[in-house]
Design brief:
There is one protein chain. It is built from 24 helices and 12 strands. It is an alpha/beta fold. The chain folds into 4 domains: 181 residues; 164 residues; 104 residues, no CATH class; 200 residues, Vaccinia Virus protein VP39 (Rossmann fold, 3-Layer(aba) Sandwich). An 8-stranded mixed sheet has the order 7-6-5-8-9-11-10-12, with helices on both faces. Strands 1-2-3-4 form a 4-stranded antiparallel sheet, with helices on one face. Strand 8, helix 22 and strand 9 form a beta-alpha-beta unit. The protein starts with a helix and ends in a 22-residue tail after the last strand.
């Protein structure tokens, strides 16, 4: 019997967590491939989980046979909605955001998710009354459930996604759902026929609501922290299941460890390590780390802090009689965390500030094991926690103020002499590193000097995290002209420290830059420099047009840099997903206005580029450039076989289709080699590493053409090379795409 219930718990969680990345991936193309899709999906999943736990809590009060019949009936009714996914032919209205996404998720997978979400508490309650040898403490089934969740999250990016398209994934999932119904039926038979009585609920205890609030808080903060870490790493790389599931897998792994037999030891280790990992987080905010180190650090922050809080949550669990109540409170906490990150934070904050707030909240909730107590026999002087916080902040502010001395002339000259005397070994980066260590160690030493009790340590470490979070906000805000945050991310316009140019960024990626020198303001900079691949592409297009007016289209507006290329009589159309980008481009940059003043025709079409291009008729372009950054990558749905076929229909017979594929983490150009071969198109690539010209950045571009002669002007330059597909290069389609073969 125990093995049956464990298998049902594992299979139920496996299906529940497989359908999450599967449906999110299916919906990505409809919402511009933005990383916010995953945050909104997580909010939906957490809300359905809460509804499922509430349903299980209410159902658990009914007679066993009624419980069995009701839930088996719900599982059967939910099967009518299979296979999971958006309805055929569905598409959102232009500019649709979170509301439309949540609505289609409800239609597509709401009922199956609700039935599966009730699985963990219901199976544990049924097992508790079945009279098995471990019925007195059924929480071990929670570990089995979390193991199934973890298996699903690891299987999806490494096995399911690389092997099956979305249609195949839906069919396999539906077969698994049918097998799960049989497991549920067997478990229901055991539970309904058992003679054991339902566990008696203990009398209401004083402070029960305080206990419930603690359960909710210990679930809400790790949930918020997990979503913040996910947003941080996906904005910097790509909004894809591979990077969605890693933080969620770490989060679930801490749950498994916390509820296992080694839970108390695991909790103590995480609690003691929490202040240390917090210092590492603060260090990363001061000094730029390598990408892999940064990624490991943020996942480490999540693992340690979530482990400490989940361990405290596991230690506070009640007896079997209050099992569904406990799960209901933890699910409510998860929803609160999701609402904070997915709804409240974008409305209140202009940047990704929820990460720092989650860090502070986590430190305040650390279990008592986090404090290295005084030696036995030594009295611990009591201090008010707020006094400890004030002392730590005062020390940190003093250390930061002292650090400003390095910019004072005599001190700066002294450092220069030290650098010269050491032959450059002790250079400016070394002193920056030294200053970062100093700024962290001074307030950290104050924490451990002042704090002698758990509440004092929690207050001190939380104050330290809050200081560094606010310091990051202050530093990040220097020279910022404006910052906006919406469903699609964080947009920032700021002036260069030297006053040379104004820059637009999305997350961590530059979306355009314009010179503040009036004589240079019409020059395209960064990745779009005239001496770079962009200039080559426009020249190649014009070589085939002569003096005839040229028609250009650009997917992704940015600051409007590419509007510097059209001549009088030419036209350029930008397709931009985020209306805020057009507003900032017109208000803070002059590329669009300058092009119109020259006599070029400029238009901006807001909405998803693929949907907008598909709606157009008769418009054919001489050059179509895809530069739709999603932080450091192009959204996958813009580089699939179906997308390429659409682009071919929108360009002339000798038209060029160019893709900006600069990426620190992925070899995106390889995907185009395979796409070109499958589509019978000529392809060329230029990797430009020269950044010596004014305002120029290194970049990589790929261009495809139906007519190979259209690429001849590029071939004559000598810096564009042809490409042939290599073994293992993926063919991306709307229903099949995996990043694994392209990882650097």
């Amino acid at each position: 019997m125990t093995a049956l219930f464990a298998a049902a718990s594992l299979a139920n969680a496996l299906l529940l967590f497989l359908v999450q990345p599967m449906t999110a991936k299916a919906l990505l193309p409809f919402f511009g491939g933005t990383a916010a899709v995953w945050t909104a999906c997580m909010l939906f999943y957490q809300a359905v989980l809460l509804a499922g736990y509430a349903y299980a809590h209410r159902l658990g009060r009914l007679p066993p046979r009624v419980q069995a019949a009701a839930h088996l009936g719900l599982l059967a009714a939910a099967a009518l909605a299979l296979p999971p996914g958006p309805p055929a032919g569905w598409s959102p209205e232009p500019g649709a955001g979170v509301g439309a996404l949540l609505l289609v998720l409800t239609r597509a997978v709401g009922l199956p998710l609700l039935a599966l979400a009730a699985g963990a508490p219901l199976l544990q309650r049924w097992y508790a009354r079945a009279g098995a040898r471990r019925s007195g403490d059924p929480y071990f089934l929670y570990a089995a459930s979390n193991a199934g969740s973890l298996m699903a999250l690891l299987a999806y990016p490494f096995a399911v996604e690389p092997l099956l398209d979305l249609g195949g994934q839906g069919r396999v999932w539906s077969w698994g759902y049918g097998a799960l119904w049989l497991l549920w039926a067997a478990c229901a038979r055991y539970s309904a026929s058992a003679k054991a009585a339902e566990p008696a609920a203990p009398p209401a205890a004083v402070g029960v609501w305080r206990e419930r609030l603690l359960w909710g808080a210990l679930a809400a903060v790790p949930s918020s922290l997990m979503l913040a870490v996910t947003a941080h790493i996906t904005i910097d790389i790509a909004p894809v299941p591979l990077l969605w599931v890693v933080p969620l897998a770490v989060y679930l792994a801490t749950y498994i460890a916390a509820f296992s037999g080694a839970g108390p030891a695991f909790t103590r280790w995480c609690a003691v390590a929490s202040p240390l990992i917090g210092m590492g987080w603060a260090f990363a905010g001061i000094f730029d780390l390598m990408t892999k180190t940064n990624l490991a650090l943020h996942l480490g922050v999540l693992a340690v802090l979530a482990g400490a809080l989940h361990g405290r949550l596991a230690g506070a669990r009640p007896g079997p009689a209050r099992l569904t109540e406990y799960y209901l409170c933890t699910a409510a906490g998860g929803v609160v965390g999701g609402l904070f990150n997915g709804v409240l934070a974008p409305l209140v904050f202009s940047g990704l500030r929820e990460y720092g707030l989650a860090m502070v909240a986590a430190m305040l909730l650390l279990p008592d094991e986090a404090l290295p107590t005084q030696p036995p026999g030594e009295p611990a002087p009591a201090r008010r926690p707020w006094l400890v916080s004030a002392g730590v902040v005062a020390g940190a502010v003093g250390a930061a103020a002292l650090g400003l001395l390095v910019e004072w002339g005599p001190v700066s000259a002294l450092f220069a002499r030290v650098t010269e005397a050491t032959g450059g070994r002790l250079d400016e980066p070394f002193f920056d590193m030294l200053g970062a260590v100093y700024l962290i160690l001074v307030p950290s030493a104050l924490v451990y000097h002042l704090a002698r009790r758990p509440a004092e340590l929690r207050a001190g470490v939380a104050a330290l995290m809050g200081f560094f979070a606010l310091r990051g906000v202050a530093i990040d805000s220097r020279l910022v002209i404006t910052r906006e945050r919406d469903f699609y991310g964080v947009l920032t316009v700021k002036e260069d420290r030297t006053g040379r140019w104004t820059t637009l960024t999305h997350g961590n990626t530059i979306h355009g830059r314009q010179s503040l020198d009036p004589a240079m303001r019409e020059e395209p900079l960064t990745y779009f420099h005239r001496k770079g691949p962009s200039g080559d592409l426009v020249a190649a297009m014009l070589a085939g047009r002569g003096k005839a007016p040229a028609r250009m289209a650009v997917v992704g507006l940015g600051a409007g840099s590419l509007a510097a290329y059209p001549r009088r009589g030419d036209s350029i159309t930008f397709y931009e997903l985020d209306p805020a980008v057009e507003r900032l481009a017109r208000k803070h940059f002059t590329y669009l206005a300058d092009a119109e003043y020259r006599g070029a025709s400029v238009s901006v079409v807001c909405g998803d580029a693929r949907l907008s291009l598909a709606r157009e008729e008769g418009e054919r372009y001489d050059l179509l450039m895809v530069d739709a950054f999603s932080s450091d990558s192009i959204p996958v749905h813009l580089v699939t076989q179906e997308a390429l076929e659409l682009y071919r229909r929108r360009v002339s017979e000798k038209g060029l289709i160019a893709f900006h594929v600069t990426n620190r983490h992925l070899r995106l150009a390889r995907a185009f080699a395979r796409l070109a071969a499958e589509s019978g198109m000529a392809v060329a690539r230029r990797r430009d590493t020269d950044n010596t010209s004014y305002g120029k950045l290194t970049s990589e571009w790929v261009v495809l053409a139906t007519d190979a002669e259209a690429l001849q002007p590029l071939a004559e330059l000598g810096n564009w090379q042809g490409m042939v597909p290599m073994a293992g290069d993926p063919l991306w389609t709307d229903s099949f795409s995996s990043l694994l073969p392209l990882l650097k």
